[in-house]
Input
Amino acid sequence: MSGEQDENAPSHLNEGTVVKVSGAAGRVRALAALTTGVVEEARRRHGTYPTATAALGRTLTGALLLGGTMKDEERLSIELVGDGPLRRAMASTTGAGRVRGYVANPAAHLPSKRGKLDVAGVVGSGMLCVIRTQPWNKEPYRSVMELVSGEIAEDLAHYLVTSEQIPSAIALGVFVNRDGDVGAAAGYLVQLLDGADAALLRQVERNVASLPPVTTLALDGAGATDILAAVLAGIETTPLESYPARFACSCTRARVHGAILLLGRDEIADMIARDGGAEVTCEFCAERYVVSAEELEMLNAEPAGSA
Ligand SMILES: [Zn+2]
Output
């Protein structure tokens, strides 16, 4: 990592990496994600304070890891709703390393506890909701459960164990620099699959217990592959996949027009007369769309029923 950056150059490139391996002849599956650029992009877009940045970054990284276990075409969303100042954290991924997300209160921040950002404190007690949308199933698969700790990694592990019945260990971490930007973000997920025995479980537990925090590994320069090697030390592995991750939203100007059309002709005419245009901000990525009066007039002139 370079210590000096040109003020005008982007300090991060909205990029991360997800690496997936299989181990012990298919009895264990593990993924690691290095998401510093992805989380920094989210922080920059939403203007989050450090504790909110950590909560959002863990949620985004968790979504990328869980998304890495899905089949193509599946979509996954994670939502935490708590009674802490953050109120809500949300991330969704379409697989293939694309993730987007937000928190209800970007200014949520608490004093650090024992040198760590108090993510559980800003989340509070509440519920975790995981929705998996599979095109081959009519209804999305929805799991709702109480938060175990609000630390997010434990909550997602609890979801995997209880709802998907897959023994899983997850670590998620975000290191926020003194000036508020993201110094490191990373995570890993280890899952024991059919045929895993007690010896394999003990080996994984020993490895995980002996590791420093995942942000320490990332700050020391470890990549996703290095993190996986540490998590699965002593277990033979086969690489499965490696792909870039990025913060990416599906919003477009055309979708914004569609949303405005739903308001009805009278309301659109009102917006033209009253405000001389409209401004729409995407909840997921904070992209701001300024819609001119001329655009609104054109929308209103379209035949009813078209969008
Ligand atoms: Zn968006």
Residues 249, 251, 282, 284-285, 287 surround zinc ion (CB under 6 Å). Confidence is low (pLDDT under 50) at residues 1-11. DSSP finds ten helices and twelve strands in the chain. The longest helix spans residues 50-67.
